[in-house]
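Hi, does anyone understand the following?
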Amino acid sequence: MAFGRTIRLGSVVREAKSFEFATFSECCRGEETMTVKHAGITAIIAVLLQFGAGGLASGAPPSTSAAIGTTFPDHFPAILNFYLGKPVIGFGSDIGRVEHVPVIFLHGNNDSPFATACNPFGRIQVFAQFFLDNGYHPSELWGLGYQGDQCDLLQDNTYRSGVSHTTAAAVPILREFVQAVLDFTGAKRVDIIAHSLGVTVAREWMVQDNAYRKVRALVAIDGPNHGIIDCSPNPANFYQLVSGGGFTPSSAVCDEYGSDHTQLLTALNAAGETPGPTRYLVIRNKPGTPDFVYNSLQDGVLPGAPAEDRDGNPHDFTASAGLAGAQTIDLVGQNQFDTILSTAHLGILNSPDARNAALRFLTSLQGRADQEGE
């Protein structure tokens, strides 16, 4: 597959904190016969996540300006997440003039727009803070939490791969949110910075609504544009266990992303991967380096999964985050920026390399907030 210009950054990085575990050569049959190795990894992850939003989760640089909050401004419309039965969470502001094209920040699966009592990550808030510290106004920076605070996962860990975490569930929420931001700010279009599942949620909304004139630019950070590795039926696939999120071949998320030719991805990519006039920047972990969503290598504390699709066929997902025709930046060593699980897939969202690249890209583009897309 042909991609746009590729730039390799971060080739010299300090040694990142790592965790050593045995490989997943042993087979297991269901949750009842989970191997000791699986159980050990599950326990370690659970302990790490108990640190919550403090301590390990702290990765934000000190701010010299106003801080990105955890609420929407008064009079911003409440948008309901029907699967959770409550309004979406996120951030935004009415402080300052809207001069830049407003930026909407989208998190990935099993994440939130800021750290919550049930999710210690929430790195898109830090990403937005970087933009605030570098010339954007609070009124120009908006974050959407389309999966809530993730506290529902305490009831059933397989919600991670369930219907409420699908692209199909998120697109209507994003559609309503983008229109609300446009109406509230008076802007004619937005920029979107998205991580992981947020990338394909944005792309699917854009293709469904032919919304390319509403989106000046999409910064696609390590998105599952051509599927994920975590849906294999192989017994060595930790992620299909309940403790791993229940990513079985028949789960709702795997129905969308378990191969490069699911119904969702076939239709989405057949429409063209980078339709105009929207401009695109892909920021991804360099193919072949650890990334637990696309690569069979261990990524921090998280185990690698067999390089197979949901049908059990061998498949190489390492280039899944690419988009044909997009300017592409490959990063390495991004696990050093995930201070909780030491993973590259989560670390890239908290990376100064990614933040700087996104800011440079968006500020290099022409056009004001009050101009229609051409």
Observations:
- The two ends are 28 Å apart (CA to CA).
- The chain is about 25% helix and 10% strand.
- The helical segments are 36-49, 124-132, 167-185, 197-209, 252-257, 263-270, 344-347, 352-364.
- The first strand starts at residue 6 and ends at 9.
